[in-house]
Amino acid sequence: MKINTALILCAGYGKRLNPLTLSKPKPLLKIKEVTTLESCIKLIESLGVEKVIINTFYLKEKIENFLDNKKFSLDIQIVDDGKTILNTGGGILNMMNSSDESSFLVFNPDTVWSNNYIKFIKDMEQFYFSNNVKNILLLVNKNLSFDKKLKGDFNLIENKIKKDAQNDLIYTGCQIINKSLFEPYLVSNFSISKIWNELINKNELYGYESSADFYHLTNLEVYEELLKNK
């Protein structure tokens, strides 16, 4: 079994990267002359996933124009958040509703994705199907983060995610999630962390640890440092 469809979250305002994002959506910011959105799509293509759904809201025409001009070989569908922004949970559910699939890879293009992640994502996918889980997050130790100010979100014990005093692991911005987890929800403004917290309370949120270096567009200061060092 394999994942056939990936979702990319591209609706956000990117306020922490103002003034750059006043006229350009965050996924179109570049590292080494390549937008983070293109890096994300290229990784998805390398994973053998053929369908991509992207949500838009803020400066959506610029993302639409970028995709039109690039003419990627993948089947890319754009789903608009609607009249109001939906946050991560609502945005994911809205994209899922335009697909017949039940399991999805979800990416946040705030991360600078590369083929260094292929092995870890494929291993995570294998764990997801082999263990019949509903949600698994790709995590990385905060020591591997370029942004040393980022704090850990979680701890991991035998692939189960916990929150405790240790919390050395950061969410990379990649997960696999099953649509069934959204059954109690309507398309509205809610965070995906609401579902994560429910699963943690039931000891049912899973994680897989990556050992790839982690580059994340946290804010303007970090982005400018990345441009100097990447």
- Unreliable sequence segments: none
Strand tally: 11
Helix content estimate: 25-40%
CATH class: Alpha Beta
Describe, in plain words, how this protein is organized in 3D.
With 230 residues, the chain is of the alpha/beta class. The protein has a single domain, classed as Spore Coat Polysaccharide Biosynthesis Protein SpsA, Chain A. It is 28% helix and 23% strand. The protein has 6 helices and 11 strands. The strands form 3 sheets. A 7-stranded mixed beta sheet has the order 5-4-1-6-10-7-11, sandwiched between helices. A two-stranded antiparallel sheet has the order 2-3. The chain is globular and about 40 Å long. The N and C termini lie far apart (35 Å). The model has no long low-confidence stretch (mean pLDDT 96).
Keywords:
single chain, 230 residues, alpha/beta, Spore Coat Polysaccharide Biosynthesis Protein SpsA, Chain A, 7-stranded mixed beta sheet, two-stranded antiparallel ribbon, 6 helices, globular
